[in-house]
């Protein structure tokens, strides 16, 4: 699979480069860290909090005058169609996060196709227009699951934002191009890949895109990484989850590492994101890609 560079329609001036703000819309019990303890068969037993947390994010984005891409889980959309419609009517992009929040390597190709097809149809039925973007649960497009890109293109997706060019125990392709690119697929189709932001330091890629990394690190590091990408003419792609803005969420008795990953610094996420939004220009991923 060849991976030529995709030239985004931006200028080389940092002040003129807009960055992509993205939100993975899932509830506090959907995360990969919780999978061994909260099977999908029990999801309906838990109090839903995603609606209130998305509302909190909407207020934050409105105050900042910022639009975002919301990668919505199909399971959430089926139960909260009014929330999806509200996001769409507010001018935010609706994109697809799959249906059942399963890492791709646990699925056969036909199972993956059915999962994304169901979620895409649900979202399109709510907003009345095509959904063109996808992000895999837990960034699970890896070397062994690159076949998923072929299926995404065949199902009508124009871009993907699932390949994290870092080393991680669960995901990542560390030698993948760090910047937005158009990928030529084995089925003779193409798809645009928009990797989450990284900072290249001492020959290694360090995550600079959001999530637990953002909750753990200082805002100054992420602002610096964004400026550095923008100075070279590239937008940064950032991601967050609604549950990361909910310090009062129910807590599960997790092992130490999993507990740290899930719950570190939840109380500070909102204020840190507000500060970051004031330091650079952000919009939806579809606006960045002009597709």
Describe this structure in words.
The strands form three sheets. Strands 1, 2, 3, 10 and 11 form a five-stranded parallel beta sheet that branches. Strands 4-5-7-6 form a four-stranded mixed beta sheet, covered by helices on one side. 34% of the residues lie in helices and 15% in strands. It starts with 17 loop residues before the first strand and ends with a helix. It is of the alpha/beta class and 291 residues long. The longest helix has 19 residues, at 109-127. The chain has a single domain (14-289), classed as TIM Barrel (Alpha-Beta Barrel). It has ten helices and eleven strands. The model is unreliable at 1-13 (pLDDT under 50). It is globular and about 45 Å long.
Approximate shape = globular
CATH class: Alpha Beta
- Nearest-integer average pLDDT: 93
The main pleated sheet reads as: 5 strands, parallel
Q: In the residues, how many domains can be counted?
A: 1
Distance between the termini: 23 Å
CATH superfamily: Glycoside hydrolase/deacetylase
Here the CATH topology equals TIM Barrel
Which series of helices and strands comes N to C? Answer: EHEHHEHEHEEEEEHHEHHEH
The residue fraction in helices comes out at 25-40%
Could you give the count of β-strands? 11
Counting DSSP H or I runs of 4 or more residues, the number of helices is 10
Radius of gyration: 18 Å
Strand content range: 5-15%
Q: Pairing-aware structural class of the strands and helices?
A: alpha/beta
> Which architecture does the CATH hierarchy give at level 2?
Alpha-Beta Barrel
Low-confidence stretches: 1-13
């Amino acid at each position: 699979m060849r991976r030529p560079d995709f030239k985004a329609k931006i200028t080389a001036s940092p002040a003129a480069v807009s960055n992509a703000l993205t939100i993975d819309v899932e509830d506090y019990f959907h995360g990969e860290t919780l999978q061994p303890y909260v099977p999908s068969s029990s999801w309906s037993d838990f109090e839903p909090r995603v609606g209130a947390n998305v509302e909190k994010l909407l207020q934050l984005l409105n105050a900042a005058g910022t639009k975002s891409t919301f990668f919505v889980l199909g399971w959430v959309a089926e139960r909260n169609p009014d929330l999806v419609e509200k996001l769409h009517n507010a001018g935010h992009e609706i994109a697809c996060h799959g249906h059942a929040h399963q890492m791709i390597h646990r699925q056969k190709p036909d199972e993956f196709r059915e999962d994304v097809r169901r979620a895409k149809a649900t979202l399109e039925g709510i907003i009345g227009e095509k959904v063109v973007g996808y992000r895999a649960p837990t960034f699970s497009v890896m070397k062994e699951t690159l076949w998923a890109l072929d299926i995404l293109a065949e199902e009508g997706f124009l871009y993907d934002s699932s390949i994290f060019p870092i080393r991680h125990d669960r995901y990542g392709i560390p030698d993948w191009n760090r910047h937005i690119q158009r990928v030529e697929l084995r089925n003779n189709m193409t798809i645009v890949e928009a990797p989450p932001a990284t900072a290249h330091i001492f020959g290694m890629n360090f995550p600079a895109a959001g999530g637990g990394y953002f909750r753990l690190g200082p805002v100054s590091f992420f602002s610096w990484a964004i400026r550095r990408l923008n100075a070279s003419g590239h937008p940064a792609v950032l991601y967050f989850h609604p549950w990361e803005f909910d310090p009062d969420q129910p807590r599960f008795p997790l092992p130490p590492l999993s507990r740290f990953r899930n719950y570190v610094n939840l109380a500070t996420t909102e204020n840190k994101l507000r500060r970051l939004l004031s330091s650079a220009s952000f919009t939806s991923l579809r606006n960045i890609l002009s597709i």
